[in-house]
Structure formats: structure tokens, C-alpha cells
Design goal:
Layout lengths: L9 E4 L18 H13 L8 E6 L16 H6 L2 E5 L31 H10 L7 E6 L1 E6 L2 H4 L19 E2 L39 E3 H6 L14 E5 L4 E6 L4 E4 L3 H13 L4 E5 L8 H12 L1
Parallel strand pairs: 1-2, 2-3, 3-4, 4-11, 6-8
Antiparallel strand pairs: 5-7, 5-10, 8-9, 9-10
Organism: Hermanssonia centrifuga
Protein name: GH18 domain-containing protein
Keywords: Signal
Length: 306
Amino acid sequence: MNLMALTLIILIVSWEYPNKQGLGCNVISEDDTSNFLAFLQELRSHEGAQNLTLSAASSIVPFAGPDGLPSKDVSGFAQVLDYVEIMNYDIWGSWSNAVGPNAPLNDSCALPANQQGSAVSAIEAWTQAGLPANQLILGVASYGHSYYVDKNDAITMTSPQASSAGYASPPGAAPLAAYPPFDKAQQPLGDSWDSNAPAGVDLCGNSGSGGPSGIFNFFGLIEKGYLDVNGTALPGTGFRYDDCSQTPYVYDPQSQTMVSYDDTQSFAAKGKFIADASLAGFAIWEVAGDSRDMLLDAISSAIVKQ
């Protein structure tokens, strides 16, 4: 087959967890990663494939080896892939034991129990395993996860109103506790894109729990009255900006909903990191979750400035 006859220019392969459970019912093999590489090598050998931009999406750690642990050598993938997109999001969510950053830039400055992975640790792991930084794309998120947090756990008068970097809480915003517990039995409904669908059958054939995902896109936080049109937390909410992970949190005391998300400040920090680390660029999930291109402008401007 002549791949170029299909006018195919870019191909993204999204086998995100070779030799790891993804859905929970997929068949895995200790040969998954080596077979994945063999497939890509075969693909590259076809006529016209040398002109194809080929990339793969992956988690924050290198593809799993035969032992199920992150591979220590993925240099073979650097020979056949133009780029690897590191999906640095969904690090914390409704499955976690506390409210944490959805897409942390860094977590080495957090307590050990709160170090679940970040952009910094991901780039270090992939480059040490043989993937050059200029072939790595940082995945960033225009959405965040919501949690039901009791007001007694969410708001603390001992929490600073300004970060050490000078990111002050908006006027009238109450300071929030770091990594508070939440009630897993009460998942808040997210923005207008979220669905409170009844329980059904998942792709594995199991009965699902149904209900909302609790996801808020950046535009949704504005629509639902957490943020103003400029992306600033509104008076009457709770707010915290975590310097370590470069993550904002906003809290509605009435619904007792806390959201870990990304804003222009956190996107600018990621843009600076992309430039400083000489990465290939960024990929956003998803651009429609932005509002008036504020997030896109923030990260793009930060990259250009460096």
C-alpha cells in the first residue's frame, strides 16, 4: 500500500498503555511494547511513510516493559516516531483519596504522599529512557475535576491568601485547604457538557455506576459562575493557587463543590517549562474547552517569550 496515496500526512497512534490494563478487561502481554515498536517499524518501512508525521500518545511514564514496569530504554521509538505526546492530566480525580491537581506541572516539592506524577517527572522519565526532549509534546488540559468537599474541610483561615509567587487570591475569595478529603458518594455535576446519564453497560460488559463525570471545562467554570469572564475567581468563592503544582482551585460554598483546573497563570507556567526544557510543543485536550482563546494565548505567549 502507498500511504501517501491516501493523502495521509499525520498519524497519531493512541495505544496508551501497552502491557497495562486500560479498560480493565483488555488482554495484555509482556510483549506488548516490543510488538508496538515492531508495528511502528513495519509502518515506517512502507512506501511514502518516511514523509509521514507519526506520533503516539502516552501516559506520564514510558511504555511498560515485560515486567510491567516503565521501560528504561525507549530509544527505538525515537527512531520511528516523530513525537510522543505526554498526557499530563487526570493525575488526580474522583478515584483519588484527596483533592489534588488534575495536571500538575511539578510535584517534587509536594509531600511524598502527594507525588503522583507531573510534567517535570514525566519529561525526566522519558528523556532518561532515551526519547529526546525535542520529540516530546506536553499534553495540557482545558478542563478540571470537581469534588464534593464539606465546608469544614475546604475552607481554612490559616491558608495564605497569596502564594509565594505573588498570585493573590481574588478579593472576597476565602482561602482553601490543600489536599482536603472529599465525599466520593456525592459526585458534583460538571458543566453543560457533562451528563447525568443513568447506569449502563461499559465497554467491558460490566454494569456501570452512571451519573456525572464532574468535569468542568474552563469555559464551563465561567458559565457556571465560578470565574468571571477574565477567568478570575468571583467574590464569594473559595480560591487557592498551589505554587508547587502550578494549579488553581476554586470552591463554591453553596454546593460545596471544589474544582482543580487550569487557568492562564498555570498555562503560562507550562509554556515557560516547554521552552526551558526544549520540548517540541504542546497539545491541548481540548481546544473547545477554552474561553476566548485565553488559555491558548497564555501558553503560546509564554513559549515565544523564552
